[in-house]
Write a structure and sequence with these properties.
Structural class: alpha+beta
Number of domains: 2
CATH topology of the largest domain: Creatine Amidinohydrolase
CATH superfamily of the largest domain: Creatinase/methionine aminopeptidase superfamily
CATH architecture of the largest domain: Alpha-Beta Complex
Number of strands: 23
């Protein structure tokens, strides 16, 4: 993987933030050619196994994966994009309209990677797919006339991350962990949930990320809403911030809690319990482990900590990557954990929650969304320490 450059940038108030960036975009794409070749091999092997002569990738997650971090989205609230990638027996192409063509060639690296452009006027229908796949059996990640819709199977191609992706994901995790920490430290009583969400979104955007999920709850809403879209309600003492931050197509997730003054003992006990459950999830996430077994072990820990029914009130997370969750874990999951996959577990007990994103290592997971100088709850599982984020008291 190529080297990253580091620079320091001042912001108001004399504070400093570290920003990490690749060198030139062209250099990134050159260095990613090995990554691209490895992914094209996965695609070609998939096509051969399925008897396909061509494969169309139109979902933005798959576009980002195969283009090694390229962005095809304009409207971020959809999994569709403004460009597609097509791999055939004769070549590989990207298909878009005249509005997007040069940006994708130059800024998203499609030209440097050797993708052949097929562009149509924005006001006209493209016939490129039909022309390039005439007489071929076509597979697609979206419903497409004459194609096999194989979105679920195609998604599996991106689950195991290459070294280059692991490097980028660490930076996305660092971005998310720092951003949510900055926003949480800026929270004050009297702020509305919308204002707090604005702090969080700004902190992500300013670091080059896209806040694809921003949830905020204050006070009683933390106890009644597991997916709290922000409202005009103003914080009195307690706030929960949740973010899913995306860059280079990869999404890192984290949750942090802030409280004005000393936290009540009941909430402190719940925070300790949910931290323990989260650590159990993390410690069990090892190569070869069955996801269903991990889930059952965590459910048992809910009961052991005195909160047996809480797991039923919200999902517990699952595989992460080019979506906030590639799949949600359950007791019926058939998947097995693989080396160099990413997971984001998010156990919750009414009024508390614990969430970070991890990379699966050979022995222990790597937490990539840690927030610098954040208070932690110390949890040890089978001799391994798993520091989980505590509640920030202001």
């Amino acid at each position: 993987m190529g080297q990253f450059s580091k620079r320091r940038s001042t912001i108001s108030g004399g504070r400093y933030l570290l920003y990490y960036q690749f060198g030139s975009q062209e250099a990134v794409r050159r260095e990613n050619m090995g990554e691209l070749e490895a992914k094209l091999k996965r695609v070609n092997d998939f096509m051969k196994a399925r008897g396909l002569g061509a494969l169309l990738l139109a979902r933005s997650a798959n576009f980002a994966w195969l283009s090694c971090g390229g962005g095809s989205h304009i409207y971020t609230a959809t999994d569709g994009g403004v460009a597609s990638l097509l791999v055939t027996q004769k070549g590989r192409y990207f298909i878009t309209n005249n509005i997007e063509a040069q940006r994708l060639l130059e800024e998203e690296g499609l030209g440097a990677q050797g993708w052949e452009l097929r562009s149509a006027p924005w006001h006209g229908a493209s016939t490129a797919v039909a022309e390039l796949t005439k007489g071929l059996q076509l597979g697609s990640d979206v419903p497409w006339e004459g194609a096999q819709e194989l979105s679920g199977d195609i998604a599996r191609l991106r689950w195991s991350l290459l070294d280059e992706e692991l490097g980028r994901f660490r930076l996305v995790g660092k971005l998310a962990g720092e951003a949510i920490g900055e926003a949480a430290r800026g929270v004050r009583p009297g702020m509305s949930e919308h204002q707090i969400a604005g702090l969080l979104a700004q902190a992500v955007w300013s670091r080059g990320g896209v806040p694809v999920v921003v949830l905020v709850a204050t006070d009683q809403r933390i106890f009644t809403r597991r997916h709290p879209l922000p409202t005009d309600r103003k914080m009195e003492r307690y706030a929960m911030l949740v973010v899913c931050a995306r860059r280079w197509g990869l999404v890192a997730s984290a949750t942090r809690l802030v409280h004005k003054g000393k936290v009540a003992q009941e909430v402190r006990d719940k925070a300790k319990a949910v931290a323990t459950i989260d650590a159990v999830f993390m410690s069990a996430t090892k190569p070869g482990a069955r996801v269903a077994d991990i889930f059952r072990r965590a459910v048992a820990t809910y009961a052991q900590t005195g909160y047996a029914e809480e797991w039923q009130l919200h999902h517990q997370g699952g595989l992460a990557g080019y979506l906030p969750r590639e799949y949600i874990a359950t007791a019926q999951s058939q998947e097995v954990v693989g080396l160099h996959q990413a997971f984001a577990w998010n156990p919750s007990i009414t009024g508390t929650k614990s969430e970070d994103t991890i990379l699966v290592g050979e022995k222990v997971p790597e937490i990539i969304t840690a927030t610098p100088d954040w208070p932690t709850v110390a949890v040890s599982i089978e001799g391994q320490s798993f520091p989980r984020p505590g509640i920030w008291e202001i």
